[in-house]
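We recall that each integer encodes one residue's backbone shape. We quote one record:
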Amino acid sequence: MTNQIAIALGLLILAALGYDHYSQDGAALLFLAKKGLALIEWLAFWR
């Protein structure tokens, strides 16, 4: 991955988080955080 692609992806992620924060009060980020924690617990079970 080149630096230009990494910067573009980083800016895209930050823009998506900013949009979520202002339009939905961070609901999508909270949803993804909960699902991420559930995934980590599920993976720890299969360890």
In short: The radius of gyration is 14 Å. The chain has one domain: 3-45. The longest helix spans residues 3-24.
